Every structure is written in C-alpha cells, then in structure tokens.
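Q: Predict the assembly, please.
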Amino acid sequence: MDEILLKIDGLKKNFGSLQVLNGISTDIRRGEVVVMIGPSGSGKSTFLRCMNLLETPDSGSIWFDGVEIVKADEKTKNRVRSEMGMVFQHFNLFPHLSILDNITLAPKLVRGMDKATAEAKAMELLGRVGLADKARSYPQQLSGGQKQRVAIVRSLAMEPKVMLFDEPTSALDPEMVGEVLDVMKELAANKMTMVVVTHEMRFARDVASRVLFLEGGRIAEEGTSEQVFGAPKSERLKLFLGKL
Amino acid sequence: MQSFIDDFNLCFVKNGRWEYLLNGLGVTLEVALAAIVLGLAIGFLVAVIRSTHDKFGRFPVLDLIAKAYLAVIRGTPMVVQLLITYYIILRSVDSKILIAILAFGINSGAYQAEIIRAGIVSIDPGQMEAARALGLSYWRSMLRIILPQAVRNVLPALGNEFIVLMKDTSIVGYIALIDLAKGGDIIRSQTYSVYLPYLTVAGIYLVLVLTFTALLGRLERHLRSTGADPVHNNS
Ligand SMILES: Nc1ncnc2c1ncn2[C@@H]1O[C@H](COP(=O)(O)OP(=O)(O)OP(=O)(O)O)[C@@H](O)[C@H]1O
Ligand SMILES: [Mg+2]
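A: Predicted assembly structure:
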C-alpha cells in the first residue's frame, strides 16, 4: 500500500477574477495529521473543499489512493466523497432526521448497508463519543458540542480513509471546544489521516504531524508544529502568529 | 318556520334533489384532490429543474420550457385555461372530469412549483454540501435531504394553494361538469329558490376548507414538534 493517501499537485481555483488557490502542491501520508492555518480569505476552506471535490479545481491534479480524481466521472467522484469524511464549522446535521438517521443515512443509501447493521454501528460510534442516549433525539435538541460530535460520528460511520475538518470548533461556545477536540485527538491517536483547519494552537501543537501556513492561495510555509510555531521563518507567519 | 321546511323539502328532498349536492361534492373532491396530486408532481419537477438550473446552469432547455409554462399559466385566467383545454387541446377526450383534473392540475402545478422552489432556495447550502460530502449523488441529496425540509418550510403556502385550488374548481360548470357549485345552481334553476341552495353550497365549501385547514395545522404542529421527516417518516 502506497504511503501517500492524497497527492495534490499544482492546484488552482478561481472564483470569477479572484484567484483563491494559486498552485498548491503537497502530499498527505496515511496516518498524518495536517493542520492548516492562515489568515481569513487565504483559501483554507477552498483547499479543503477541493480535496473532496465539493469545489472543482480549475487546474491541477489530486490523486486519492492512487487514482486521479479531478477529472474523474461523477460516479467516481461520489465514491471518493463517500471515502472522505468532512466536518463543517456549522455541523450541517440534517434537522429533519433523528441523530440515528443522520448517521445511518449514508451507510444505508451509499453503501447499501442493511438497517440493523448500520444502526448497530452508529450506536457503537455514538457510545464512543458519549452520546448513545441521544440516538432518538433530533439535532435541534442538542448543544453545539454534541452536534459536532454527532457530525464527526456521521462521517466516521462511512469508515473514511481521511477526515477533513473545517474549523470544527469555531462556532462553539468556549466550554464545548474541549469535548470536540478530545474526540479529534482520539481519532489522531488511532492513526486516522486528518486535515484540519483550525485556530486551536494547543491542538495543533499536540497532534499535528505537519502544519501548513496558507497565505494568498499558496503554502507560504510548512513544517512540524515546533518549526512553525517555535521558529517561524517568514515575516508573514510571525505576524499571523502574533495576532492569535 | 313552516315556509323554511317547505323550502327545504322543495330544494333538497323532492325528486331526490339532494343528490345534486352529494354527487356534486363527489366531483368537486375528485377534481380537487387529483389536481392537487398532479400539481404536486408537476410542481416538484419544475421546482427542481429551475433551482438546479439557477445553481449550476444545467438543463437550459428544460428551464426555458419551465419558464414559458409558468408565464403562460400564471398570465392567463383559470376559466380561459379550462375552456381552451376542453374545446381545443383535449377536444377528443370524452371524460369531463379528466379534462378538469388535467386543467386544474397543470394550473396548480405552476403555483406549487414556485412555492416549492422558494422552499428549496431557503435551505442552507450546507445541507446539500453535507449530503454530497457523505457520497450521496445530487439527486439523492435533493430527494432525501433538501426536498423534505423544503416542503416542511412551505407547508402553509402549499396548504393555501390547495385551498385556492379547491374553491377554484367551482368554475367547472363552464364545461358543463356538475360539481358542488353547479349542483346548487341546478337546484336553484329547478326550484326558483335562491337562498337555500346557494347558502348550503357555500356552507359545504366552508366546512371543507375549515376541515382541511385544521388537518394541515395538525400536520404542521406534528412536524414542528418532532422535527420528523414528512416524506420519509420511517427512513
Ligand atoms: N463560492 C464562492 N464564490 C465566490 N468567492 C468565494 C467562494 N468561496 C470562497 N470565496 C472567496 O475565496 C476566498 C478564499 O475563501 P476561503 O473560504 O477558502 O478562505 P478561508 O481561508 O477559509 O477563510 P476563513 O478563515 O475566513 O474561513 C475568499 O476571498 C472568499 O470570499
Ligand atoms: Mg474557511
């Protein structure tokens, strides 16, 4: 098995005349936790959304598990997405479905898993994040931290090869950030491959195998968390870290 | 009092005239309910085509057809549409009920389409993204995630459209179909009694509308309280 799970090469993306991604290349290895930081508008979300093709890059290539996916057909893209988990800042749980149905929907529809198996798996995952008693609740009955843990479980139920997180704790009240980060830390400890956009520097320090600093749609600096936080090279990065 | 009883006998009992109202009510309900269902089917289709086009630019031809359909239906009176359907488009069709159902269903579809489209547009784009990120296709995401929420959000407006449609069917007399309104009119023409037939007909329509409003209100409250899915309740 190739050690590289995601190979990104020369990724570019424009929105109209605005060039958001300016040629990004990087490899994401299995089991790696890559933390992405950078100023607002630097293209972090867009980069993440290009990885699972929620946005279509204008040029460049992405190999996922050895297969080029940017130019793949729609069916392949759907399959690829089903193998990548994505956690959003605003959770995006489905409000019309119970927690259990939120989690089992995709395993049943996309994977053809039978109801009993899907529910057993969902309950096991819910138990792991301490929310087994919420299975029959609806999203609006949960706190923000609980919603985000459910959202993570919903992705995990698809047994993804990589998890993409776009500021998963930014919309949470401070007292709920910890419970979500704990779940993410456990994932990292279990060798889940993760790409995380976050402003939680402690989390980045603790679990990141690599930190990317995005600026103007490029990777302006990268390294281990010690290198990036401890000994930033560029003035831009120093300025950015100083503001946090 | 005696004169009321005489009038009542004349209008509803004698010669079994009550059957005009009962049969008429049956026609009204049949046309209205079938047209609602047909309108819903058209409404969903047109709404999804229009919103998909607006978002991705797909289906340009279908979108154009949909827009023309909306313009024609919403720009001409229902009576005229009914007459054109009867005398021109479906001239060779015998069943007046079928003609009425088609005319009203096609008409209501235009209004329902715009209501449902407003519902689709009102859903947070994050819902579609989350569904796609899980690997669901666009159409599955639409069907399982977007539409159930869209319908729930526009249920009051849809219900209102159903009520308007039901009352609008009272013009089917134009194609000599005997519905509730026409039934009352026939009784009036046979008995020369004005008050009782028309007021009774009005009362029956009112009861229909109130019953329907109450049912809809219960459905809305139910959906709000559980957050349940109106389309796939056991998914
Ligand atoms: N769908 C879109 N249409 C037009 N412009 C967009 C779209 N999505 C993002 N942009 C623009 O692209 C730029 C980069 O956006 P992106 O969301 O990737 O930044 P970000 O690094 O995630 O910022 P933040 O830290 O604020 O989340 C921004 O200027 C944004 O306004
Ligand atoms: Mg962002």
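Residues A 44-45, 166 surround magnesium ion (ligand 2) (CB under 6 Å). The mean pLDDT of chain A is 96.
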